[in-house]
């Protein structure tokens, strides 16, 4: 099974061809996207590890959806002071269908 590990938004993701991956937001409309920050690739027999990235390696995909995750509540509280702030946050994301490694 061939897969690669790419870096996007300070995080690393394991991707394979035909897989849909939810990544940090990419400022681009739907269409093709290319990732050049490839950390590791393997095809089942040969494994290549980058130092820190593999030069010339590309992972291609299509942007399927731009969205925002479910709301989480962020609570700031101070003990013994009767102070509490509640805020909400929705993290933006991009869903990408991997087409080529």
Q: Span between N and C termini?
A: 12 Å
Biggest β-sheet, characterized? Answer: 4 strands, antiparallel
Approximate strand percentage: over 45%
Q: Compute the number of strand runs.
A: 10
| Shape, principal axes of CA atoms | elongated
What would you call the quaternary organization? single chain
Order of SSEs: EEEEEEEEEE
- The portion of residues assigned to helices is under 10%
Written account of the structure:
The chain is mainly beta and 101 residues long. It has strands at 3-8, 11-15, 20-24, 32-35, 38-42, 47-49, 59-68, 72-78, 83-89, 92-100. The protein has one domain. The chain is built from no helices and ten strands. The strands form three sheets. The chain has a four-stranded antiparallel sheet, with no helix packed on it. The model has no long low-confidence stretch (mean pLDDT 89).
């Amino acid at each position: 099974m061939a897969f690669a590990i790419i870096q996007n938004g300070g995080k690393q993701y394991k991707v394979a061809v035909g897989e849909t991956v939810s990544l940090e937001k990419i400022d681009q409309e739907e269409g093709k996207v290319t990732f050049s920050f490839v950390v590791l690739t393997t095809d089942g027999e040969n494994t290549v590890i980058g130092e820190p990235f593999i030069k010339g390696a590309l992972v291609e995909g299509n942007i399927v959806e731009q969205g925002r995750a479910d709301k989480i509540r962020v609570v700031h509280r101070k003990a013994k002071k009767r102070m509490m702030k509640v805020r909400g946050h929705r993290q933006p994301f991009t869903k990408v269908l991997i087409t080529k490694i």
